[in-house]
């Protein structure tokens, strides 16, 4: 798999880096498979880092996943940020980090999330059901609405 990391095809490189990252994170193997070729892995990753650093800006955009995989693999194996991370090449300005997807619906649910915080906790007297279908001033919707004859 390490031979595939230096492939000319970016899809093959990304798949190989993803596979190596899974091996590095696999605790059942104890990282024995990667530790056997530690020097070779470091040289391969360093070579990928150097070629990413030399890329033109439009090529950096195309190699987004590879940049993130190389950095994640470096962190998983060596427990330190890679040179790409230190130079700000993992997530470029204007890009979103792949760990946090964009919040596209949060503004619709924000009032619903804040409503329980604005309401004070009911006292023990308010917690009992007064018998009119409400519980502490909250309408319980367990069936058809009152007055709705179906």
From TrEMBL:
This is Uncharacterized protein. InterPro entries: ARM-like, Hsp70_NEF-Inhibitors. GO terms for cellular component: endoplasmic reticulum. GO terms for molecular function: adenyl-nucleotide exchange factor activity. It comes from the Eukaryota. Residues 115-150 are annotated as: Disordered.
């Amino acid at each position: 798999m390490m031979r595939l990391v230096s492939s000319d095809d970016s899809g093959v490189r990304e798949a190989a880096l993803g596979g190596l990252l899974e091996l590095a994170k696999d605790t059942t193997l104890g990282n024995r498979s990667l530790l056997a070729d530690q020097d070779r892995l470091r040289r391969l990753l360093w070579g990928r880092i150097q070629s990413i650093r030399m890329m033109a800006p439009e090529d950096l955009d195309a190699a987004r996943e590879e940049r993130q995989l190389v950095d994640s693999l470096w962190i998983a194996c060596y427990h330190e940020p890679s040179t790409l991370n230190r130079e700000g090449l993992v997530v470029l300005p204007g890009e979103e980090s792949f760990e946090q997807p964009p919040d596209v619906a949060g503004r619709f649910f924000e009032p619903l999330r804040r409503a329980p915080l604005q309401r004070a906790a009911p006292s023990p007297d308010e917690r009992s059901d007064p018998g009119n279908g409400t519980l502490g001033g909250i309408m319980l919707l367990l069936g058809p609405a009152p007055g709705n004859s179906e």
